[in-house]
Design goal:
The complex is a heterodimer. Chain A is an all-beta fold. Chain A is built from no helices and 11 strands. In chain A, the strands form 2 sheets. In chain A, strands 2, 4, 5, 6, 9, 10 and 11 form a 7-stranded mixed beta sheet that branches. In chain A, strands 1-3-8-7 form a 4-stranded antiparallel beta sheet, with no helix packed on it. By secondary structure, chain B is an all-beta fold. Chain B is built from no helices and 12 strands. In chain B, strands 2, 5, 6, 10, 11 and 12 form a 6-stranded mixed beta sheet that branches. In chain B, strand 7 and strand 8 form a beta hairpin. The chains are: A mainly beta, B mainly beta.
Chain lengths: ~110, ~120
Amino acid sequence: EAGVTQSPTHLIKTRGQQATLRCSPISGHTSVYWYQQALGLGLQFLLWYDEGEERNRGNFPPRFSGRQFPNYSSELNVNALELEDSALYLCASRPLAGGPQTQYFGPGTRLLVL
Amino acid sequence: GNSVTQMEGPVTLSEEAFLTINCTYTATGYPSLFWYVQYPGEGLQLLLKATKADDKGSNKGFEATYRKETTSFHLEKGSVQVSDSAVYFCALTTHDRGSTLGRLYFGRGTQLTVWP
């Protein structure tokens, strides 16, 4: 069974540009979570998508947005990039809601903003 | 609210030493508890989990017991190896069926370095 995949693995942008990160969950998983791992800040919850809807978001500005497609894959968009957006962005998927199932993480996209 | 407090690192040990990484939590409701590991340059891998009080999670020689009375989930290994060098994250998720369902709350991570 294929795991969670993310693309690209690395992304280099300049301040003010937009970044798009992609995530494909494990087959059969309907929930996708996005986390940011910035240096010195630990893992911060960004967004949760389930059944195509945004269910919850963390304490991030509106320029962080995303969507979930009918096949449950997801996209994270970061507009007007700032230097402090440089981080590892991790996507995780979980089976259909029914309890606190384990989340499975992808390898991440490392975003560098210059 | 929900939060995880994890032992500050870094932790440096010699091979075959005993490892303990402390983790305590606060949670609304009844959490499930996890330890994730992150090897250099990689994403997170689930190491072990426990879903109810007194459960012991174990994997690859690592163990952690869900202690409700002390709200703790300390990670232990009797004899570490160089290959265990990584960052270890304690995390919880709750059974709340609202907007936080399934969301993981992480500790800050503990860097472990094992020398030969």
